[in-house]
Design goal:
heterodimer; A: alpha/beta; Rossmann fold; 5-stranded mixed beta sheet; 15 helices; 7 strands; 10% strand; B: two-stranded antiparallel ribbon; two-stranded antiparallel ribbon; 3 helices; 4 strands; binds iron/sulfur cluster; Acetyl-CoA synthase subunit gamma (chain A); membrane (chain A)
Chain lengths: 361, 74
């Protein structure tokens, strides 16, 4: 542990630019350890724009917050200290819930990653907190010896280590920033409810757009393959048939990345790829019924081939979605992946074989 | 409760308890985001092992190494 803390001193780069932060700051307050910037608790339009960009995967790495202590309201020597990650979205979600509160926020260096992921990767750690507590002279800033840690940092932070090296007692606060006010008013006690992770419809729909966009990354390959396939078949109506067939695939992808998350608890089966295949069967029925519209009416080989390929993609993306959920375990995903691989292999090979068969008969 | 209706594959969670080492301090219960653990007769026990997501928060915050979780990489 000692080495890890020492290593922090040599690694520290305090050169994160705060130009992305200026619109979030509202003056400074004087303290025993110097002037400290005060955070706004109201998000401005620029913040919302940033959030939108993050949701759609634009410049996601560009949201580091400079580490150190910030003030909220007019804190004093008895005000609580909240610890958080130096990811802008994380800090924004926190500060917007702190209206009318007076407290300190300690932003630690998690390499611009949110609390949960940073704890898993080891950058939201006891040694980083210990280092920042010392560097920022928190023992001079406040009279009490309590740090409120986000509960989701627990996989990375052994709270008892912090106490051992700094004298500050790390206490895990609630999971959601919106509960912090009641947690403090409650005398620093979190109810069972505050300690449970949820995955509500709203939370699921918030991860969907990024999921869809990420899944569409490799779509050009599918498009080219469909184009080449159609080229071999006939040159008549090449463009329209390619576009319409590709459209069926886009909807298939949209179904797993948007509909599956929305209906998650309602879909049968536990494994995600089976849930996705369930939707694939439904979608196959629709495509089959409207096969003229999608230009995949060449022969039943062709139709079946496309349906198998679509289902394989959907099954794969279904398992992929486990990565964005809050309640799947690594062992579970491993088990599911082992089942998924043969299914997708058969689907893809079978689908391609049928499509080729259609070309040669 | 919505989180109740969301549950993943049963019987795979890789977590072991060593109640002999447990002091009953409750630290693990405080950090668990999925209500997996309880204290029974002053020792840690499972409330619902299948809810465990193998995050390792309980293991990290147990001062007595009474919980071992095989956490996934990444
Ligand atoms: S590993 Fe995580 S989810 Fe599993 S019991 Fe421990 S704290 Fe709870
Ligand atoms: S944290 Fe460890 S010692 Fe404390 S109750 Fe849990 S298992 Fe027992």
């Amino acid at each position: 542990m000692e080495d890890k803390i020492l290593k922090k001193y040599s690694e520290d780069r305090c050169n994160i630019s705060d130009k992305y932060m200026a619109h979030s700051i509202n003056g400074e307050i004087e303290t025993a350890i110097g002037n400290i910037k005060r955070l706004k608790t109201q998000l401005v339009r620029k913040d919302h724009l940033d959030h939108l960009k993050v949701r759609f995967g634009i410049h996601r790495d560009n949201y580091h917050v400079p580490t150190g202590v910030y003030a909220v309201g007019t804190p004093h020597k008895e005000s609580p200290i909240l610890v958080t990650a130096n990811y802008k979205l994380t800090l924004d979600q926190l500060r917007r819930e702190l209206k009318n509160l007076n407290l300190w926020i300690l932003v630690i260096d998690t390499k611009g990653i949110n609390v949960w992921c940073a704890a898993g990767k080891g950058s939201f750690s006891a040694e980083e907190i210990i280092y920042q507590v010392k560097k920022n002279q928190l023992d001079e800033l406040v009279n009490h010896r309590r740090l409120i840690l986000p509960q989701l940092s627990a996989p990375g932070v052994a709270a008892h280590e912090i106490f051992k090296y700094t004298g500050f007692k790390g206490e895990f606060g609630p999971i959601r920033a919106s509960d912090i006010k009641s947690y403090i008013e409650n005398g620093f006690k979190a109810t069972g409810e505050m300690r449970r992770v949820t995955f509500t419809l709203k939370e699921r729909l918030l991860v969907s757009p990024l999921e869809f966009i990420m899944s569409m990354k490799h779509f050009p390959i599918v498009l080219i393959l469909i184009f080449l396939y159609n080229l071999f078949k006939t040159t008549e109506g090449l463009w329209i048939s390619t576009v319409m067939t590709a459209f069926a695939y886009v909807v298939a992808i949209a179904i797993v990345t948007l509909v599956l998350p929305a209906l998650l608890p309602l879909l049968p089966f536990r494994m995600f790829f089976v849930k996705a295949l369930f939707l694939a069967v439904v979608w196959s029925g629709v495509v089959y019924h409207f096969r003229d519209f999608f230009f995949i009416y060449g022969s039943s080989y062709e139709t079946l081939g496309h349906l198998l390929l679509m289902a394989s993609i959907m099954g794969y993306l279904g398992t992929n979605f486990t990565g964005s959920t809050t309640f799947t375990s690594f062992s579970g995903v491993q088990r599911e992946t082992l089942r998924l691989i043969p299914v997708v292999a058969i689907g893809v090979l079978g689908g391609m074989a049928l499509l080729l068969l259609d070309l040669f008969i | 409760m919505e989180y109740m209706s969301l549950s993943y594959i049963k019987g795979v969670a890789n977590i072991k308890l060593y109640p002999d080492k447990c002091s009953g301090c409750g630290g693990c219960i405080e950090v668990c985001p999925h209500n997996v653990l309880i204290i029974e007769d002053h020792k840690v026990a499972f409330l619902d092992q299948d809810n465990c997501i193998e995050c390792g928060g309980c293991m990290k915050n147990c001062p007595f190494d009474a919980i071992v979780v095989k956490t996934g990489v990444g």
